[in-house]
Design brief:
Elements (H helix, E strand, L loop, with lengths): L17 H12 L3 H8 L6 H7 L11 E9 L2 E8 L5 H13 L5 E4 L3 E9 L4 H10 L1 H11 L1 H5 L3 E12 L2 E11 L6 H19 L2 E8 L6 E8 L7 H16 L1 H21 L4 H12 L9 E5 L5 E8 L13 H10 L4 H24 L3 H16 L5 H13 L4 H13 L1
The structure holds (R)-mevalonate (MEV).
C-alpha cells in the first residue's frame, strides 16, 4: 500500500484472520516483518480466545503481573495478583501491608452486591404523577425483571428495590427509574441492562411518556467495598510521620486538585487487581471518581484519623462492581489463575480484597509523600526502565540502574554512558 493512498476504510476487517489483519495493518503503517511477527505472538493468551474477546484483533498487550505479599485480610493471609505497568505499585502495597501485619492487617466489609439500572422517561407533562404510577407497579416490575434471569434468581439474586427520581434537566423534567438488583457473583452489567430494556416499554405505556436510555449506572453506591486498618505509630516511623500523613490526607480532602492525584494512587492498586482478575477497570474507575464527587465536591476516597492510642487509622469505602463470572474473568487464562491465587469464593470477597489493596496503596503514597518524597523509591524502580530503554539486558539492567540511582540522576543518556562503560570492561 502506497503511503499516500492509505485509507482507514477497510470493510470486513473483522471477517479476516488475525494474520491477514496484521498484514493489512502492516502495509498501512509500514511495519517490518519483525514487528508483524511480534504482533502475531499472542503469548499466553490463545489467539482464538483473543479473537473472540474483541473485534479486529491484531495482537495482545502483555502487562506484568506481580503479586502483593504480606496481605493479612480479615485474619486470612492472601497473595494478591496485580497487573500494572507502573514500577512502584506492587512494592507500595507490600510495604504498607508489612507495616500493619503485626497489628492484625486489614478488616473489610461490603454493603452487598447491588447494582443499579436506570430507565430514562421523557415527554411527561406530570412527572410527579408518573413517578407514583411507576412506584405502584413495584410487584409487576419485580416479576418482569426476575423473569429476565431465572438463574440469577435461583442463585439468590434478582430484583430488590425500586427508586423513581425526578430530575430537572436542560431538556425538561425527566423521570428516572432505578432498578436495584442483586447480581450475586456477576459484575451484573448484562443482567441489569437486560432488565432495564425489558421494562422500558412498560414504563412508557403506564405513563404515556417516552423511554430512551436503559443502562446500568457505574455509580454503584449500593455495592460499596470497605477496608480499614490501624498502623501503629511506632511501626510507621513515629508521630511525625503519622502527622505528616494526616496533613497529606487533609489536603486531599479539601482540594480536588490534590484529591485527583490521591485517588489516582488508590486506583493504582485497585485497577491492578481489577485488571488481573479480568474485571472491568473502567467501570470501577468511573464508579470511584463519581463516588468521590458525590457530596458536590470531588474529594478523597480514603479517610485517615489519629486513634486514641496515637496510631494511624485509615479507611477506604468505594463502589466495587467486580464479578467472578462473566466478562473476561472466566475466559482469560491469566484472570482464571489470578482468581485461583486469590482463592476467593465470591465477588464480595474479591471486592473486599481490592479495597484493602487500595487502602494499602494510599498508605504508601502518603507515607512517601510526607517523608522522603515519592521520587526516591520510585526512581530506584524507574531507573531499571531507563536502563532497559538504553539497551541494557539481563544483569546489566540492575547494574546500570544502581549506577543511575547512585548518581541521583535517572536519565537515558547517562544510562547509555553507564552501559557503554560496563560493556567496555
Ligand atoms: C503515582 O502513580 C501515585 C501518587 O501520585 C499518588 C499520590 O500522590 O497520592 C504517588
Amino acid at each position: 500500500m502506497d503511503g499516500k493512498n492509505r485509507s482507514s476504510r477497510i470493510s470486513g476487517l473483522h471477517k479476516k484472520s488475525i494474520r491477514e489483519r496484521i498484514e493489512l495493518v502492516g502495509a498501512f503503517a509500514g511495519l517490518d516483518a519483525a514487528e508483524m511477527d511480534h504482533l502475531a505472538n499472542t503469548g499466553n493468551l490463545d489467539e482464538h480466545v483473543a479473537d473472540h474477546l474483541i473485534e479486529n484483533v491484531i495482537g495482545t498487550m502483555n502487562i506484568p503481573v506481580g503479586v502483593a505479599t504480606n496481605m493479612l485480610i480479615d485474619g486470612k493471609d492472601r497473595l494478591v495478583p496485580m497487573a500494572t505497568e507502573e514500577s512502584s505499585v506492587v512494592a507500595a502495597v507490600c510495604n504498607a501491608a508489612r507495616q500493619c501485619y503485626d497489628n492484625g492487617g486489614f478488616i473489610t466489609s461490603m454493603s452487598g452486591p447491588l447494582m443499579i439500572a436506570q430507565v430514562q422517561l421523557v415527554d411527561i407533562a406530570d412527572p410527579q404523577h408518573a413517578r407514583i404510577k411507576i412506584l405502584e407497579r413495584r410487584d409487576e416490575i419485580k416479576a418482569i425483571c426476575d423473569e429476565c434471569d431465572p438463574i440469577l434468581v435461583k442463585l439468590g439474586g434478582g430484583f430488590r428495590d425500586l427508586e423513581v427520581r425526578i430530575i430537572a434537566t436542560r431538556g425538561g423534567d425527566m423521570v428516572i427509574t432505578h432498578l436495584i438488583v442483586d447480581t450475586r457473583d456477576a459484575m451484573g452489567a448484562n443482567a441489569v441492562n437486560t432488565m432495564a430494556e425489558k421494562l422500558a416499554p412498560y414504563i412508557a405505556a403506564w405513563t404515556g411518556g417516552r423511554t430512551y436510555l436503559r443502562i446500568l449506572s457505574n455509580l454503584a453506591d449500593r455495592r460499596l467495598a470497605r477496608a480499614r486498618c490501624v498502623w501503629k505509630a511506632e511501626a510507621i516511623g513515629g508521630a511525625e510521620v503519622r502527622d505528616g500523613m494526616l496533613a497529606a490526607y487533609h489536603f486531599a480532602e479539601a482540594d480536588p486538585y490534590r484529591a485527583a492525584t490521591h485517588n489516582k494512587g488508590i486506583m493504582n492498586g485497585v485497577s491492578a487487581v481489577v485488571l488481573a482478575t479480568g474485571n472491568d477497570t473502567r467501570a470501577v474507575e468511573s464508579g470511584a471518581h463519581a463516588y468521590g464527587a458525590r457530596l458536590g465536591r470531588y474529594s478523597s476516597l480514603t479517610h485517615w484519623e489519629r486513634t486514641a492510642e496515637g496510631d494511624l487509622a485509615g479507611i477506604l469505602e468505594m463502589p466495587m462492581a467486580v464479578g467472578l463470572i462473566g466478562g473476561a474473568t472466566k475466559l482469560h487464562p491469566t484472570a482464571k489463575v489470578a482468581l485461583k491465587i486469590l482463592s476467593v469464593q465470591s465477588a464480595e470477597e474479591l471486592a473486599r480484597i481490592i479495597a484493602a489493596v487500595g487502602l494499602a496503596q494510599n498508605f504508601s503514597a502518603l507515607k512517601a509523600l510526607a517523608t522522603t518524597g515519592i521520587q526516591k523509591g520510585h526512581m530506584a524502580l524507574h531507573a531499571q526502565n531507563i536502563a532497559m530503554m538504553a539497551g541494557a539486558l539481563g544483569d546489566e539492567i540492575e547494574i546500570v540502574a544502581r549506577a543511575l540511582v547512585a548518581q541521583g540522576k535517572v536519565r537515558v543518556d547517562l544510562a547509555e554512558a553507564e552501559l557503554a562503560k560496563l560493556r567496555s570492561k
